[in-house]
Specification:
Length: 137
């Protein structure tokens, strides 16, 4: 678990410097763009849970992203309490730019790691993430 905690802490630097900063995003902005780009329309509390970020930070980031024209209210407005957001076309274009940026960061971080070890890492990470998602249930 110590190595997992270190990984969780230290991955933020290459993601910030290699992906977020070049795209003009904060680390929280990047997480939101990645979550919405990968999951689709989500409410602020969903984003807070997925990202492990306090709701106030998510709210501020959503306001800034909205001001920049990167997110907009979602289509599902049947529940007046739940206020989902989604990426705008411009936000989707920005999300699309994160893919090659993350590939560059990943290539650097995994340089020299054999493909079989990368595949094993991906499987183990997926298994641990699934268990974390059920923690306390």
């Amino acid at each position: 678990l110590v190595d997992l905690l270190k990984l969780g802490s230290f991955i933020s630097t290459p993601m910030r410097e290699g992906v977020a900063n070049p795209l003009g995003l904060t680390a929280t902005d990047l997480r939101i763009v990645l979550a919405l780009g990968g999951e689709g329309e989500l409410a602020g509390h969903d984003l807070s849970e997925i990202m492990g970020v306090p709701p106030m930070n998510v709210s501020r980031a959503l306001a800034a992203l909205s001001e920049r024209g990167l997110v907009e209210p979602g289509r599902n407005r049947t529940n007046r309490r739940r206020k989902p957001v989604r990426l705008t076309d411009e936000g989707q274009a920005l999300f699309d730019q994160t893919v090659p940026a993350m590939e560059r960061v990943g290539a650097d971080l995994f340089k020299g790691v054999p493909q079989r070890d990368r595949d094993a890492f991906r499987r183990v990470a997926a298994a641990v993430l699934a268990r974390i998602g059920r923690w306390g249930a």
